[in-house]
Design a protein that fits this description.
The protein has 14 helices and 7 strands. With 312 residues, the chain is α/β, with parallel strands linked by helices. The chain has a 7-stranded mixed β-sheet, sandwiched between helices. Strand 1, helix 3 and strand 2 form a beta-alpha-beta unit. Helix 8 crosses helix 11 and helix 12 packs parallel to helix 13. The protein is globular and about 60 Å long.
């Protein structure tokens, strides 16, 4: 698919609110771990001085291509570094660039408009495409591998844990029976198998959950998120900010737990006096959601939640 502009690639969600949450110092060091179309990165850079620096991560080669777009000339500044890598390796890359501490990190965890509209990647059930769903095209595991090779119980767990689908066992059983007749290789093959398992009034929502479950499994999203947030906690200096936008309950739970307790499991550790020992202070006790105007302009933003915390 031909890329037109960074804006058509991905419209940034909660742009002003998420960047404001970083409480940017012009000379600070910041990280945008989800570059996408570069919207958040450009806004962060606009608030940095010459001594400040921004590192932006994205494992998708399509995102890296946005750097050459005319609308992204601001990203060619000396105080900007693009890292073509999965953000789970955040700590490794900061060691490589000899960065011991950062002043803030922003993450927009949602799928980009580009990926959902790219007919060749298999992220959406709107198009007939190979069941790929790899964010990193060089990764080995695809959605087709999961569907055709996982044992039935493990496949059911994927749909239950990552799609929160109550009929996960029935879905897995149906797929295992179908793949014995013929490999399930594209989105239409998958839809023919599982569409009859959902009630018509909930069909689109349930199908979206099924595709979400496969995408999370293929890209190991929950493990990757936990690793990144753990690294961010270690890298942030005192007073540094963590600004994270989530889109579904699974990732939001991990972010919420880490900000409240300092770990992804939400295990509360208390001191001798019964006070919660957490490396973070919550900036917004209540999640920030997009305005009605933004939701109308960008439907993708409707499920977005922003959480902000400050390192103690």
């Amino acid at each position: 698919m031909e890329l037109k502009t960074a804006e058509t690639y991905h419209i940034p969600v909660l742009l002003e609110e998420s960047v404001a949450g970083l409480n940017i110092h012009p000379d600070g060091i910041y990280i945008d771990v989800t570059f996408g179309g570069g919207g958040h990165s450009k806004y962060i850079l606009s608030q940095l001085g010459e001594k400040g620096h921004l590192f932006s991560f994205d494992q998708d080669a399509d995102a890296e291509n946005n750097l050459s777009l005319e609308s992204n000339t601001v990203l060619k500044q000396k105080n900007f570094t693009f890292v073509h890598s999965n953000f789970r390796y955040l700590k490794n890359w900061m060691q490589y660039y000899q960065i011991e501490h950062i002043d803030g990190l922003l993450a927009d965890l949602g799928m980009s408009s580009h990926h959902l509209d790219d007919e060749s990647r298999g992220f959406s059930f709107r198009f007939d495409a190979p069941l790929d769903m790899r964010m990193n095209k060089n990764a080995h595991l695809s959605a087709a591998d999961v569907i055709n090779n996982y044992e039935e119980e493990r496949l059911a767990d994927v749909f239950f844990l990552y799609g929160e689908l109550k009929n996960s066992r029935k879905i897995a059983n149906t797929l295992v029976k179908a793949r014995k007749q013929k490999p399930i290789e594209n989105t239409q093959d998958l839809l023919k198998c599982i569409e009859p398992l959902f009630r018509k009034e909930h069909e689109k929502k349930e199908l979206a959950k099924a595709f979400q479950a496969l995408r999370i499994e293929v890209n190991r999203e929950m493990d990757v998120l936990t690793e990144m947030l753990t690294s961010a906690t270690e890298l942030l200096r005192e007073g540094g900010r963590l600004s994270v936008i989530t889109y579904h309950s699974l990732e939001d739970r991990i972010v919420k737990n880490l900000m409240k307790s300092g770990n992804a499991e939400g295990k509360i550790i208390q001191d001798f006096y019964g006070r919660t020992e957490s490396p973070f202070k919550l900036i917004n006790n209540k999640v920030i959601v997009p305005s009605q105007e933004e939701q109308l302009q960008n439907p993708r933003s409707r499920s977005a939640k922003l959480r902000i915390a400050e390192k103690r």
